[in-house]
Design a protein that fits this description.
about 425 residues; mainly beta; six-stranded mixed beta sheet; five-stranded antiparallel beta sheet; 4 helices; 29 strands; about 45% strand
Amino acid sequence: MLGISGGSMKRMVIYFSSLFLFSILTLFTFQNCSKFKPSLSETNSSLTLNESSLTTSSYFNSQSGLYAYAPSVVSANGELYFFTCHSHHDNQAYYIQDDIYVHTKDGEKMILGNERVLDTRRTDLPWDGYNLCDPSVVQGNFKYNGVPYKYALFYTGAGPYNFSGLNNQIGLAVSNQLDSGWVRYPHPIIPFSTGHGSPQQNKYWGLGQPSAVKIAAGKVLLIFSAGEPDMAGEHRTTVDLSNFTDTQKPLITPYERLNPAGLQSVIGADNYFTDVDIAFNPTSREFYAIRSKHYNQTNNQSAFPIKVDWSGAGLLVDGYLAPRVEILKISEADFWNNGAWTQITDIGKDQTGNFLNHNPGLAKTLDGYLPNPSQISAYFSSACKTDPCSRDDYFYNFSILSKNIPIASTPSPEPQPH
């Protein structure tokens, strides 16, 4: 979680300094744990902040040291499904390790479900046996080992050989139900480069934070973040899941780096394009994106917006999570031809009351489209009302905030196939 546990955090800054991550990691004490199952009664009411039409629902308010964050929100079957990075060690506070859970929403309340969608307790896949996060779900006509499936889930995985936020790779699972039955493909479909040594030797963040949009019956557009010296920033590829097996990998096109033109940091132009969720608007033929927005970037290193009081006694460390989230759009033609992005708005402390606003996602249909072509529904993690921020607020006590943003919806010509 947050670049410390295994680097699988969906909406985070890709931070390349393993020395910093390791120094923070050593401050944790990891312990064994007992099993915790949140009941459906554990809900928190939403509330309105200021007059900004911003609503919030918080997980684990009464259970310090447990967390759920980085929501991937899917509109399906008349309700919203929230796939989140969730505390792996049930009832064990202050143990940072992620599994992927699914929750639903009942009116203005979150319902914390019992269902682990993907579970690190499965030990026969060592490449992703420590951390699972960054879910992105899409529907299609998929076939794996001869069995048809309706849904695919892309995720970031990290193995037990390194829990300091490095060595991330992108994995895949398939199912015919959203809340259960997920079957994991045994290999990473987007592996980190073999040119940087073995997983145990690799000192780079790797590849992760996938976001998927359906572009054909069995084909998916996948964008992802890269944190390697010869491959940094946000990239795209297409993945053909129409027929693959354990020994026949899905067909994947060469990676292409997304153009960061048009991005703005907190204090100026920005070329640091990572931590992105993307959706398509079929009415206007535009792609919409939401990302963590930082201060100016130099050589892909983050500026630190706040300090974190680690011990409660003045031991301050840099807080590297983003202070704002930014919403962007680009025409379909410009997306495929690496044109420039246009900012719609951004969200930060002036609206949330919190110094840190990060790990964002867009509500999407199972095709990866906007559910309402005239509105964006943005979700993101938010924390830290003070600077310095407490350790608990920085790492565990997140709220998940949402905001609906009206957008213009002008029909455009039909697209050319890709």
